[in-house]
Amino acid sequence: VAVRMLGQKLGMALTGILGGVASSTATTLAMSRESKKEPILAGDCSLAVVLSCTVMLWRVAFLATVVDPAIFMKLAVPFGWMSIPGTAFCLWRVWYHGKGHPKGQVVAYRNPLSLRDAIQFALFYALIVYLVKVASDRFGETGLSAVSAFSGLMDLDAISLSLSRMAQDPGMMNLAIQGILIATLANTLLKSSIAAVFGNGVLRARVLPVLGVTALIGIGMLFLK
């Protein structure tokens, strides 16, 4: 619908924004597949992917802030730096990379708020809360890092909410921030893999460097912690 109303480029940009709010992983998969079905749209598909991945960072920050407002400023610095590559790419793509593209197919999305998904999220969230508690108590920082990485591959929202609850204990704040960063990096790696496997050459050439630099910045932020 956004593509029909706003045109290809702005429609794809809006798709990326909404995809980042709903599911950047689903957006990456859908747009990567679209780039193979409609190769001429690969550039605009890459815009949607990168924009969704950038918005995802701030979705995580917002969700964490709902649980613990004090955590926002702790996440704003690393996520701000990690947003720079994606933001720069999107500005370049929207404002400086030509005009006018033929209309492609409108990508269909599942309703992200379906009852089944809500139930699955609740169950997975309960599991993550338990695993975070066990890993933190028994294995300390190493165990929590492993749970964060695994959970980031499965459901970034669940681990972010769980770690935000943990951050309400001031003594656990830094460990929670580290876990959220690790989960975000794991999720970024997953989306890079999706783009590499399902996207065409043009999309890979544009998306992978941006996500790669984003991940490197995130790793740097971890070491600074």
Structure, described:
- With 225 residues, this protein is mostly helical.
- It has one domain.
- The protein has 9 helices and no strands.
- The longest helix is centred in the middle third of the chain and has 40 residues, at 115-154.
- The chain is elongated and about 50 Å long.
- The model is unreliable at 1-7 and 99-114 (pLDDT under 50).
List strands and helices in order, with pairings.
Blueprint: H1 2-6, H2 8-22, H3 24-37, H4 42-67, H5 72-96, H6 115-154, H7 156-166, H8 173-198, H9 201-224
Helix pairs in contact: 2-3, 2-4, 3-4, 3-8, 4-5, 4-7, 4-9, 5-9, 6-7, 6-8, 7-8, 8-9
Quickly give the structural class: mainly alpha
Compressed to H and E, one letter per element, the order equals HHHHHHHHH
What is the total domain count? 1
Query: How much of the residues is beta strand, in percent?
Result: under 5%
Number of strands: 0
Helix content: over 70%
How would a crystallographer describe the biggest sheet? none
Question: How many DSSP helices?
Answer: 9
Give the overall average pLDDT: 83
User: What kind of oligomer do you see?
Assistant: single chain
| Inertia-based shape | elongated
Radius of gyration: 18 Å
| N-C termini distance | 43 Å
Poorly predicted ranges: 1-7, 99-114
